[in-house]
Amino acid sequence: QAEAATSATPGRVARVAPDVRPCSWSFMGQDLAKECGCGYGAEEDAGEQRVEIDQSALRPASTGKAATNRLPEHEEEQYSAPPPPPAPAAGTAVAKPKPKPARDLRLPKLSLEQILQDLEGSEEASYSAAFSTMAGDQAQLTPDNAPLRNFLEQYSGVQDVDTELLKIASNNEAFAIDCSSFVMLLRLNPLNESEALESFLQLSGGGDQISAEDCRTGLFQVIQSIGSSSFNAHTSERIIDAAMVSAGLQVSMEQWVGLSKTAARICRLALHAKAS
Description:
Shape: extended
Helix content: 40-55%
Order of helices and strands: HEEHHHHEHHEHHEHHEH
Distance between the termini: 115 Å
């Protein structure tokens, strides 16, 4: 038995069974045989040992490095990387993405029709865009800003620019003018109010009311004083109609001042929209 155990196949470790003799005894008339030591179930142990030897032969040899994860050969053959995009032919111009156009802060030009339909909305849009152009990335402008002062002198009826700007700037800690204050200043000062009162006294002859016809005559004079070369007779009539839409047959001094400001606001905004 020892010779048989040592003559096992090379590469396999054979287990040498001890030289023991089987013992036998009887239990309730049955003979039971058992080898002393570990002889009982030797065939099962030998089978398990052969399985372990066979599986160890299938394990890859240790190379001292971690084994890399690879796909099975049949899967590696099926997988292939997508081909690269074809290169442009020689002499072919490659299309470049067009740059985005710069944002125009002035907005589209307003027509007289748009101004007559929505005066306040048109003022807000046009004058806010003008302020953004002057301020750039800033949210406020100082009272000594040259473009701001030039704009007020050209498109408003403010007589003393310094006083009005300082009055607005003194109401905030930054001592500056923001966009909403700028729009409001233009809206409230389209003309010289003192001149409007003088015009009413001339039209009324010292009275407290004027007729609707005299009011139209006075408004025409206001329009011509703002832009005589920019508004012809037909355009002036349209502006007067829009200003007097809620006027009655008689117009008081207070109503006259309000109608004059409305007509002047339309003219100022139309001139700015035309120049933008």
